[in-house]
Specification:
Length: 180
Protein backbone atom coordinates (compact mmCIF):
# COMPACT_ATOMS: atom_id res chain seq x y z
CA UNK A 1 0.00 0.00 0.00
CA UNK A 2 1.46 3.34 -1.00
CA UNK A 3 1.52 6.60 0.97
CA UNK A 4 -1.18 8.15 -1.19
CA UNK A 5 -3.62 5.33 -0.38
CA UNK A 6 -2.75 5.57 3.33
CA UNK A 7 -3.55 9.28 3.27
CA UNK A 8 -6.88 8.67 1.49
CA UNK A 9 -7.88 6.01 4.02
CA UNK A 10 -6.85 8.27 6.92
CA UNK A 11 -8.93 11.17 5.57
CA UNK A 12 -11.90 8.85 5.00
CA UNK A 13 -11.65 7.56 8.57
CA UNK A 14 -11.35 11.09 9.96
CA UNK A 15 -14.42 12.23 8.08
CA UNK A 16 -16.58 9.32 9.19
CA UNK A 17 -15.26 8.72 12.71
CA UNK A 18 -15.12 12.41 13.66
CA UNK A 19 -17.68 14.31 11.61
CA UNK A 20 -20.17 12.36 9.48
CA UNK A 21 -20.66 8.75 10.61
CA UNK A 22 -24.30 8.84 9.52
CA UNK A 23 -23.24 9.60 5.93
CA UNK A 24 -22.26 5.95 5.53
CA UNK A 25 -24.78 4.55 7.99
CA UNK A 26 -22.28 4.21 10.81
CA UNK A 27 -23.24 4.58 14.48
CA UNK A 28 -20.78 5.74 17.12
CA UNK A 29 -21.42 4.93 20.76
CA UNK A 30 -21.39 7.67 23.40
CA UNK A 31 -17.58 7.48 23.64
CA UNK A 32 -17.03 7.58 19.86
CA UNK A 33 -16.36 3.85 19.34
CA UNK A 34 -17.76 1.74 16.53
CA UNK A 35 -17.23 -1.88 15.57
CA UNK A 36 -14.45 -2.37 13.03
CA UNK A 37 -16.56 -4.86 11.07
CA UNK A 38 -19.39 -2.33 10.79
CA UNK A 39 -16.95 0.35 9.60
CA UNK A 40 -15.42 -1.90 6.94
CA UNK A 41 -18.86 -3.02 5.73
CA UNK A 42 -20.17 0.55 5.59
CA UNK A 43 -17.10 1.79 3.71
CA UNK A 44 -17.41 -1.01 1.14
CA UNK A 45 -21.16 -0.45 0.72
CA UNK A 46 -20.48 3.22 -0.01
CA UNK A 47 -17.80 2.64 -2.65
CA UNK A 48 -14.65 2.93 -0.55
CA UNK A 49 -13.58 -0.60 0.41
CA UNK A 50 -10.88 -0.74 3.08
CA UNK A 51 -9.02 -3.93 3.92
CA UNK A 52 -8.39 -4.79 7.55
CA UNK A 53 -4.66 -4.74 6.82
CA UNK A 54 -5.00 -1.19 5.42
CA UNK A 55 -6.99 -0.09 8.46
CA UNK A 56 -4.41 -1.51 10.86
CA UNK A 57 -1.57 0.12 8.94
CA UNK A 58 -3.26 3.55 8.98
CA UNK A 59 -3.91 3.29 12.72
CA UNK A 60 -0.37 2.18 13.58
CA UNK A 61 1.59 4.40 11.17
CA UNK A 62 -0.39 7.65 11.23
CA UNK A 63 2.08 10.33 12.31
CA UNK A 64 -0.54 12.04 14.45
CA UNK A 65 -1.97 8.83 15.91
CA UNK A 66 -5.48 10.02 15.08
CA UNK A 67 -7.19 6.68 15.76
CA UNK A 68 -7.30 4.04 18.46
CA UNK A 69 -8.26 0.38 18.29
CA UNK A 70 -9.54 -1.48 21.33
CA UNK A 71 -10.22 -5.13 20.52
CA UNK A 72 -12.67 -5.04 17.62
CA UNK A 73 -13.59 -1.37 18.07
CA UNK A 74 -12.12 1.81 16.59
CA UNK A 75 -12.50 5.52 17.28
CA UNK A 76 -10.87 8.85 16.54
CA UNK A 77 -8.73 10.10 19.43
CA UNK A 78 -10.08 13.67 19.26
CA UNK A 79 -11.36 16.32 16.86
CA UNK A 80 -15.01 15.33 16.74
CA UNK A 81 -17.76 17.65 15.59
CA UNK A 82 -20.40 15.03 16.47
CA UNK A 83 -21.51 14.54 20.06
CA UNK A 84 -19.21 12.10 21.84
CA UNK A 85 -17.67 11.97 25.30
CA UNK A 86 -14.14 10.62 25.07
CA UNK A 87 -14.05 10.39 28.88
CA UNK A 88 -10.56 11.87 29.01
CA UNK A 89 -9.54 12.73 32.56
CA UNK A 90 -8.47 16.25 33.40
CA UNK A 91 -4.72 16.71 33.55
CA UNK A 92 -2.22 19.34 34.62
CA UNK A 93 -0.67 20.79 31.47
CA UNK A 94 2.94 21.81 31.04
CA UNK A 95 3.68 25.50 31.59
CA UNK A 96 3.38 26.24 27.86
CA UNK A 97 1.57 24.63 24.98
CA UNK A 98 1.47 25.70 21.33
CA UNK A 99 -1.04 26.30 18.57
CA UNK A 100 -0.31 26.47 14.85
CA UNK A 101 -2.33 28.81 12.65
CA UNK A 102 -1.92 31.12 9.65
CA UNK A 103 -1.83 34.92 9.30
CA UNK A 104 -5.41 35.10 8.00
CA UNK A 105 -6.74 33.98 11.42
CA UNK A 106 -4.41 36.01 13.62
CA UNK A 107 -6.53 39.18 13.99
CA UNK A 108 -9.59 37.19 15.09
CA UNK A 109 -7.49 35.10 17.48
CA UNK A 110 -6.02 38.22 19.05
CA UNK A 111 -9.55 39.59 19.52
CA UNK A 112 -11.43 36.45 20.56
CA UNK A 113 -8.75 33.96 21.57
CA UNK A 114 -8.77 30.36 20.38
CA UNK A 115 -12.23 28.86 20.04
CA UNK A 116 -13.17 25.28 19.16
CA UNK A 117 -15.15 26.39 16.09
CA UNK A 118 -17.08 23.29 14.93
CA UNK A 119 -15.19 20.92 17.23
CA UNK A 120 -15.65 20.18 20.91
CA UNK A 121 -12.32 21.63 22.05
CA UNK A 122 -9.33 23.72 21.07
CA UNK A 123 -6.38 21.49 20.14
CA UNK A 124 -2.96 22.41 21.49
CA UNK A 125 0.41 20.88 20.71
CA UNK A 126 3.03 19.97 23.29
CA UNK A 127 5.87 21.47 21.21
CA UNK A 128 6.55 24.15 18.59
CA UNK A 129 7.52 21.65 15.91
CA UNK A 130 4.14 19.92 16.01
CA UNK A 131 2.31 23.26 16.07
CA UNK A 132 4.36 24.37 13.06
CA UNK A 133 3.30 21.26 11.11
CA UNK A 134 -0.34 21.84 12.08
CA UNK A 135 -0.26 25.46 10.93
CA UNK A 136 1.55 24.55 7.71
CA UNK A 137 -1.47 22.53 6.52
CA UNK A 138 -3.17 25.82 5.65
CA UNK A 139 -0.24 27.96 4.50
CA UNK A 140 2.75 29.66 6.05
CA UNK A 141 2.55 28.71 9.73
CA UNK A 142 2.42 31.06 12.68
CA UNK A 143 2.96 29.47 16.08
CA UNK A 144 1.28 30.83 19.19
CA UNK A 145 2.50 30.08 22.69
CA UNK A 146 -0.26 29.35 25.21
CA UNK A 147 0.41 30.09 28.88
CA UNK A 148 -1.24 26.83 29.93
CA UNK A 149 0.22 27.01 33.44
CA UNK A 150 -1.49 30.35 34.09
CA UNK A 151 -4.72 29.13 32.51
CA UNK A 152 -4.71 26.07 34.73
CA UNK A 153 -3.97 28.18 37.82
CA UNK A 154 -6.94 30.39 36.84
CA UNK A 155 -9.28 27.39 36.77
CA UNK A 156 -9.29 26.34 33.12
CA UNK A 157 -9.37 22.58 32.62
CA UNK A 158 -7.21 20.57 30.27
CA UNK A 159 -7.37 17.00 29.02
CA UNK A 160 -4.80 15.05 27.06
CA UNK A 161 -5.83 12.68 24.28
CA UNK A 162 -4.20 9.31 23.65
CA UNK A 163 -1.97 10.81 20.96
CA UNK A 164 -0.64 13.64 23.14
CA UNK A 165 -2.86 16.46 21.87
CA UNK A 166 -3.95 18.77 24.69
CA UNK A 167 -7.60 19.82 24.72
CA UNK A 168 -9.33 22.75 26.41
CA UNK A 169 -12.65 24.50 25.81
CA UNK A 170 -11.15 27.84 24.72
CA UNK A 171 -8.05 29.99 25.17
CA UNK A 172 -8.75 33.64 26.01
CA UNK A 173 -6.46 36.15 24.25
CA UNK A 174 -4.63 37.14 27.45
CA UNK A 175 -2.93 33.71 27.54
CA UNK A 176 -1.59 33.91 23.97
CA UNK A 177 1.71 35.21 22.61
CA UNK A 178 3.53 34.79 19.34
CA UNK A 179 6.15 32.08 19.78
CA UNK A 180 9.45 33.37 18.40
Amino acid sequence: MNDRRLLKVSKYLSRHLRHEPERIGLTLDAAGWTEIGALLEAAAAHGFPIGRDELDKVVTTNDKQRFAIDGERIRANQGHSVAVDLALPTATPPAYLFHGTVAAHLAAIRREGLRPMNRHDVHLSPDRETATRVGARRGRPIVLSVDAGAMHADGHTFRRSANGVWLTRAVPPRYLRLAN
